[in-house]
Amino acid sequence: MTVTDLKIYGGLLSPFVLRPVLAARAKGHELPVESFPGGIKCDEYLALTPTGKMPLMVHGDLVLPESQPITDYVDAVLPGPALLPADPVEAARVRLLVRIADVYMVPHLGGLFAAQSKPEGVPAAMAGMAAALAYFEHFRDPAHDYAYGDSFTQADAAMIPLFFFLDALDRGLGTAKLLEATPGLAAWWTRAKASDIGARAVAEQAEGLKAMMAARG
Ligand SMILES: N[C@@H](CCC(=O)N[C@@H](CS)C(=O)NCC(=O)O)C(=O)O
User: Does ligand 1 come within 6 angstroms of the Cβ of 57?
Assistant: First the structure.
């Protein structure tokens, strides 16, 4: 078994699928991403992961759901620059940004995404999102070019595909304007989405969103 046998199931609109994909790209590798035949709720998929969520990574005997452990694994097994600093203090700062993304930002994306069917949930989701952005701003150094430090880390891999939705949902909800309260973070996002990895991710997610809207009719 080699790292070239590593496979990710999912679609490229998902910020969780993109997290290990972006991490791999930052290390100079392209991970194969495939839709699971039968979808993520079919019996075969649920037998692999009862979570029924994407991404799912398969590498030999290792069947691994959840974007962050997949990203850690990809970072460890693929050659290329490490995406967590070796210094424990610096690594802790990167991990904290990933954690803020997952614990404080992600739950509110759902509320914003469901704005049409549940408009009553939008104010709380906007307030929660604003709080999450303020946490990033508090713990980031605005002088850093990347989410943390002067090179791409796991924090960029986690944050870029989540921040896509601030722009994508802006027209209806004004989500991009939330970044006005966090200028350091806003400047990072402007740089991140203009970078090769960021621009490609945004284009892939935009494509995925278009396809999802078209399928919904
Ligand atoms: N905590 C999971 C979240 C994964 C997740 O929510 N994926 C979404 C797609 S963006 C999904 O598969 N949703 C299908 C469902 O929940 O039924 C991770 O980090 O991988």
Answer: no
